[in-house]
Amino acid sequence: MIDNGLLVQMILGALLGLSVYLPMAAGQLSLATPAFYAVGGTLAALLSTQGNAQSAISLWAVLGEMLLAGCLTAGLALLVGLPVLRLRGIYLAIATIALVEIVRVAILNLPFTGGAAGIFGIPQPFQKPFGYVLFSGALLAVCGWLFQRLEASRLGRSMAAIRDDELASRCMGIHTTRVKLTAFLASAVLAGITGVIAAHYLNTWNARQGSFDVAITTLAFVILGGSRSWLGPVIGGLLLTALPELLRPVGDLRLVLFGLVILLGPVFFPQGLITPALLERLGRWKP
Amino acid sequence: MSGQASAAPLLELRQISRQFGGLQALSEVSFQVEQGEIFGLIGPNGAGKTTLFNLLSGVTPASNGTIHWRGQAMQGLSPDRHNRLGIARTFQNLRLFTGLSVLENVLVALHRQPQGGKLDALLNSSRFRRRQSELRERALQLLEELGLADQAHRQASGLAYGDRRRLEIARALATAPALLLLDEPAAGMNPREKEQLCELLAQLRQRHQLTLVVIEHHVPLLMQLCQRLAVLDFGRLIALGTPEQIQRDPRVIEAYLGGSR
Questions:
Q1: Which of B78, B80, B81, B167 to mutate to test the interface with A (most CBs of A within 10 A)?
Q2: pLDDT in tens, B99-148
Q3: CA A85 to CA A233: how far, in whole Å?
Q4: CA separation (Å) from B119 to A156, B124, B128?
Q5: Is residue A110 in some structural domain?
Q6: In this structure, are B187 and B216 located in the same domain?
Q7: What is the pTM of this model?
Q8: How much is the ipTM here?
Q9: Does the beta-carbon distance from A170 to B107 stay under 8 Å?
């Protein structure tokens, strides 16, 4: 039932879930992930369709695009993050939704991004989906390792402290603005490079890739998966991306079922599927 | 006023005022706290004690007046800057990191200690692990001093009330302060615990070379603990002196017992 094509999308979902999780681990409800995802995807689409149209692109070129997308989204996140991270809670969420809208409308209307139809014929670095599975899977593995290290380090501890009580963190001498900005930057970079991979994999890119819907879906990855450990958004991203496809046999009812899962998930698993207690039982994840 | 750094008091408030809208929470409060002193702050509810702590820890800025730290004016500094200068505090209504374990609460506050290198952290090198286990040792030692070592791995939200108060002190101590501001450290403790806390604070001051400023409603505890006291009433400093002086001060008696105003 799960073919390589779906597997790629699931892994991309997990990466986006991690991107939403990062600011949330520092107590910041940011929904900006689709904006940076769209910037990364558009950048890759523009760069790789320049000049004479090719059907293939070297892996090195894709890695170069990822590097550029990382720099661009980091710069944008720095610019946006400094003023926006002064907001708290729902106000931050609204400001980041505004960012998503601004980026979407910009991509829709800029003269070189193909309007509503978008950009077509984005060249492929891999001939088969399996190549993408390996590539994005490797990226997910690296991310998992980095997140595991993060949670055992000072930065991860400071983020957890800010999530619990920002004022107390400041009074303990933690430079909370810097910590929150770091989390926001990392989140943006991760979304940006995920966008690069997605653009090549999907072969086409348009403004709808980074819409408000994506913000809500990726938020659901974290809510359902659990926001207390990086494993939560990974599991949430994998499951919730797969679910609509796995439910395809039931026809349009699948959308209702999908909605039910998102609705009932928090009722039965208020802390998400992956909870600290579960990890405690699994033992080896927490030091 | 002497400008010499060596002669300057550790903390000096000069004509500190703070308004909240039409409310005058503090008006023209001035006093000094000397190095090594245990300084008490008392006053009826709403006298401005916690507001004063918020000013001293950078949480709220003063409307007027300046606060000097080791002879230097601290103006417009953020709470984290205040902490880095050596001022740590506890909170009257407990602000622990409740999602973290008792040990992690202290570890968070040890963030300015060397961590063993960023690259080492990434690679989980033996240097990093050694350094982290040293930090855990240090945190455990602080917990030991406050009698919380046996609860190190419990979640902070699961602690008894008195233990939470002590964890707040351990966490503040972990930032290696010179001045510790304690906002009602004995609140909710029984008389025996209060007695123990008193001894503990005296010990901690010795061991960590601390200067303490303590807000407390339980006046006998302060009388026993402090060298000097300041009394606030409706935002004004109405008395300043040794416990004996304070006890005899007619304005203090009036503020506490009421009188013909």
A1: B80
A2: 999 999 999 999 999 888 888 998 899 999 999 999 999 999 999 999 99
A3: 22
A4: 15, 8, 9
A5: yes
A6: yes
A7: 0.91
A8: 0.91
A9: no
